[in-house]
Amino acid sequence: MQIIDGKKVSAQVKEEVKNQTLELKEKHGVTPGLAVVIVGNDSASRVYVNNKKKACEAVGFKSEEYALPEQTTQEELLSLVKTLNEKPDINGILVQLPLPKHLDDKAVIEAINPEKDVDAFHAVNVGKIMLGEYDFLPCTPAGVMEMLHSYDIPVSGKNCVVIGRSNIVGKPMAMLLLHENGTVTICHSRTKNLAEVCSQADILVAAVGKPKFVTVDMVKEGAVVIDVGMDRDENGKLCGDVDFENVKDKCSFITPVPGGVGPMTIATLMKNTLKAAKLQNNISD
Ligand code: NAP
Known about the structure:
The protein is an alpha/beta fold. The protein is built from ten helices and eleven strands. α1 (6-28) packs parallel to α10, α2 packs across α10 and α6 crosses α10. The chain binds NADP nicotinamide-adenine-dinucleotide phosphate.
């Protein structure tokens, strides 16, 4: 069994982004800029936003944070997005989800210029991913693919099972595995015989949001297990969707939580922002 080290792979990705950013500044005078918008006081969101800001600093990007109060109206938020769409030194716009209940996240995402949608949540970018002709890949699923590549784990022809069908993780994850010729099954809360379906997987991706949901009986001997979950266990400690301690010895590869998929999500966000800066300045790779 090998533990997939997301911190190590993400450091490599960020180092590459940092080098390319330096080159972009020197050759073209362009510094990629990311605007992060956070509304309200959700503590988990606050941590994610701080991590994104730190990553921007580490790779040499300009970052702007817009922390809006809980009672911000839809009009105020849309107006900020419009301003950021028009700001030439901002190449990527990220609105941290979830938004407070009175705000319509779908409308906010649709208001972002697709060329600045570095989360790849806008319908235009989602459609492009479906067609396999994308500029940006959604950060978490793309981070998972990067980890598989980094450890030379083949996808082609493998049975891949994704548990979860959210627009942010499950669905695009399945699509990316399909693009690489995996035979993909998507499971969700109405799936019958879930354990049996999962136990057929060569590559099992858990994106459920339930602590230690994937138990050892659901895992095939020698499987690759990717844990997207960021959950809290009974003691309030961060854990994943996989019962890591009991599952790990049955796997060929497994990602830990923390230190697995999480850091990769941010590394991909940096890659996407760099790409956005290049595209918006007509600079090819
Ligand atoms: P979500 O929108 O709540 O989706 C959860 C999915 O799990 C749904 O499709 C749901 O099925 C399915 N599900 C729930 N209970 C199930 C059950 N008993 N059996 C089978 N399927 C079940 O969550 P999400 O946004 O995709 O996030 C999933 C997890 O990933 C969360 O822990 C989140 O914190 C984490 N996450 C981590 C990162 C990262 O960077 N590491 C990024 C994003 C999310 P239905 O569709 O039928 O309801």
